[in-house]
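Example 3.2
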Amino acid sequence: MLLLFTFMLVIVGSTIGNKKPNIIFILTDDQGSADVGFANPNSQFKTENIDKIASNSIRLSNYYVHPTCTPTRAALMTGRYAANVGLSLALIPGNPGGLDPKYQTLPEHLGEMGYRNYLVGKWHLGQSKKMYHPLSRGFHEFYGLLGAGFNHFTKQQGAGRFDFWRGFEPLFDNKTHSTDLINGEALEIVQKHAEDPQSDPFFMYIAYPAPHDPLGAPERHQELCSHIKNHRRMMSCAMVAGIDEGVGKILDQLEDKNMLDDTIIIFSIDNGGVPYAGAFNYPLRGAKGTLYEGGCRSPGFIHAPNIFKNSYDYKDLFHIADFYPTLMSMISHSMENQTQIAVSDELDGVDQLSALKDSTAGPRKNVHIHRDWDRDGHAYRRGPWKIIVGHHCLPFFFTKVYNETNSRWLVENGGLRDKALQLILEGIDALLGTENTIFVQYMIWMAFDSFNVGGIHRARAATGSATKEIFQEKYKTDLEYFLKEQEADPEYPMVSLFNLEEDPQETTNLASTHPNLVKELLAEAEDAIKNAPTPIRGDMVHAHASVSKQQNWVSILRSLGSVFEEVIPFGIYLDDTQDLTKLEYVRLADLARTDAFVIAVKWVLAFIIFPFMLILCVLKYNAVF
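Structure, written as tokens:
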């Protein structure tokens, strides 16, 4: 009997000692890197819960993501640079592309190790085929949206396409804010595992679609941010407040169930914030869709008290692809026997565990920041040196530092053009709603900001080349061509070299001072993606993709946007064997032209012609009497 009891103790002890940690990865969407307190103590945003957990974590202060949504998510899931999985551009609604199944994902690897995997929130790695679906890519349960940004209340992407799901089935809800739904689902998952201590360890990827525009938030969160005078800035704050509320509830539940210390918690933003959507990245230059630091640097942290005994700021280079191999090492370290977990040597991600744990110099000495073959931009960093060769803005011309505003103007102390842009956007919001005009507003931003870099012809070029092909041919960056272009038009940056340790705001271009270093770094950048597959053009829309029955000239005249009365669930609609090159495509910029024309006519009628006619009537009336 004593022998049996001893044997049972050994088994139980071995089981406890080999219990793998739970993992929660929190990813927010288009949140400004200045809009979280642990990275910016002067932030006006309400992030007390995120800041609290960050204070007991290793904070990543030199951490890179990609400049748009899909590329960052692809790098996280595969441990590879976005270019090396063919996803350099965000997939817009109606694009049938996705993450190729030949690339193993993090949840697939974790599943092989006994994890129960949950995706709660935004996928954005393909929604047209079953093989792209998260339940086909390692997740056991999926609750959220498959595609890009949507109306957070109606869950519509545009054209009457509804995008909210549980598994493969649409989950119809057009009243509850997406963040509230996601927070509720995450809490249920934690509760389920807390009630069964013998359950498998879980990986929960909470990918909030907020604060991505169109802006919208519950009243209770708007009240928390009522101290902010600019409306869009206030709304972005309110959306972040909803995320923080959910994080706080999740942390409280983990602590209440004695699960907090046994759970690895990671926080990241997918790309830089969008200034005209109220998200700022100061003191960094630029924003989402640019190759400046404001587009591709993110605040982040790793909370793992059973592994990391100290909290501090990790200042060495870190890339979102590094989480894949680093998490594998963290899992191994947590197990009693510390079994080495095999990771493919084809990954671009670097295992950072030893440096993080021992506070030693990091293993990553360089980072391939991004390559866009469609708009032709390339960025790379080694040590303090960063190059950008080609178009720096992909496609938004956010070329400056957008500092905090304490007035109703988004660009405080801005010029006449800044104020005119804001008034036009406010007029559109009042007349039609930002949720119904989002892509047209993007075009207006580009048109106005193009004058920061030489003129309106730059906006026309930023929409991409005229093509009907979904796949983009690869080619090497032509340094000599861009040097000549920059010489011909110095106002538009084409070749930049920055020393980020001395110049973190990228104000001083040293390319002409160190021409050989530019060539050397560009050669390294090309080598990092030499085996990249043919990339997908993310802004090509399948011309015959499913839309609501209401999508016609009447809906365009009504500017229904994301408030169609009749919707169609927009998920899997193609067979896995469908050759994407055989489909017919139209470029987003071409698709949006009719909407843009109708919106422009309505704006002119409402804010110019009608007031003018009213004034004439008043004058005529006064003349008669």
